[in-house]
Design a protein that fits this description.
By secondary structure, the chain is mainly α. Helix content is 49%, strand content 6%. It contains twelve helices and five strands. A three-stranded mixed sheet has the order 3-4-5, with no helix packed on it. It has a two-stranded antiparallel sheet with strand order 1-2. Helix 5 runs parallel beside helix 11. The protein is globular. It starts with a strand and ends in a 5-residue tail after the last helix.
Length: 301
């Protein structure tokens, strides 16, 4: 219990930050809910302030297995804030594996009929490409804007009683009751190309337009399985509802085209964007900048 444990970061809920650190390195980035604590600890480390985990300290937190943050409105903040943290602190060229993992994540959303988080990821990249100057201005508005998009996507609309959705029907039963195995690492890129082309060009099966082809529990909703279906009822993480995922070839074409374009832009502009964000960091994390944001968004008089 007495051993010192050095860590790359601690979550905000586990942080005790000496005032002298904030006076030296500034305040948090004006971003919301994801990666702001990681970035702050990395920034402190670069300034000579290590982060340690205090032995014996603990806090209750809802299990990550009971959260849908990878497929709900938080997908935007996962993507945008992670990219910003990498632009500020990554020691690797082009952020190392960052862009490859980003396009992989977005493609998995698309082939899984998760069009809402896929679109959210692309909006996040657009905002990163726009540079750091608007981060304070969008702080009070971006979350409600992203959440308002849910009405446009059936995969984002949670129905409290799945019995209100159409029953499962298929023209032919599946060849096996076991879910398909995920492709191995060498198989992943060829599998992704084949799957995207198939989802883009193959028409949706007629029966799947009116009835889901399967009921899929959240824990079984792996992208390699969902990619084989034309529609499915997928439960949410905490079991309080379900959403109807429906394949849409037009959405697949639009989202994948935009994803390739935006990731290519991000790859080409990585070095210049990194310089922009690093140069802007002292100003956007200053107490003065935060004071203006709080003053402009305080209670209405």
């Amino acid at each position: 219990m007495h051993r010192r444990w050095d860590a790359d970061y601690n979550g905000w809920w586990m942080c005790l930050i000496p005032r002298v650190v904030m006076e030296d390195i500034g305040l948090s980035l004006p971003v919301f809910i994801k990666w702001d604590d990681s970035e702050y600890s990395l920034r402190a480390k670069e300034a000579g302030y290590p982060t340690i985990s205090l032995p014996g300290a603990a806090v209750w937190h809802v299990s990550w297995a009971d959260k849908d943050d990878a497929v709900d409105w938080q997908a935007y903040f996962h993507e945008r804030n992670r990219l910003i943290a990498a632009l500020l602190h990554s020691p690797y060229s082009k952020g190392g594996r960052m862009l490859r993992e980003s396009i992989t994540t977005d493609t998995k959303h698309v082939v899984s009929m998760q069009y809402y988080p896929a679109k959210s990821v692309l909006l996040a990249i657009q905002d990163v490409l726009a540079g750091p100057d608007g981060l304070h201005e969008m702080l009070p508005t971006r979350m409600p804007e992203i959440r308002a998009m849910k009405d446009d996507y059936s995969d984002a609309r949670v129905v409290k009683d799945p019995a209100d959705l159409p029953p499962v029907r298929r023209k032919k039963p599946p060849k096996t009751m076991e879910a398909p195995k995920a492709p191995t690492k060498p198989q992943l890129i060829p599998w992704a190309v084949r799957t995207v082309l198939k989802q883009t060009l193959r028409p949706v099966r007629d029966m799947a337009k009116e009835n889901p082809e399967a009921n899929v529990a959240h824990m079984d909703g792996h992208w390699s399985y969902l990619a084989t279906l034309d529609s499915a009822i997928v439960s949410n993480a905490d079991g309080t509802g379900a959403s109807w995922y429906r394949r849409d070839p037009a959405q697949v074409r639009e989202l994948m085209t935009e994803s390739i374009k935006l990731h290519a832009e991000l790859f080409a502009q990585w070095e210049s964007l990194s310089k922009q964000y690093r140069a802007a960091l002292p100003d956007i994390t200053s107490p003065e900048a935060w004071a203006r944001t709080f003053a402009e968004n305080g209670p209405k008089k």
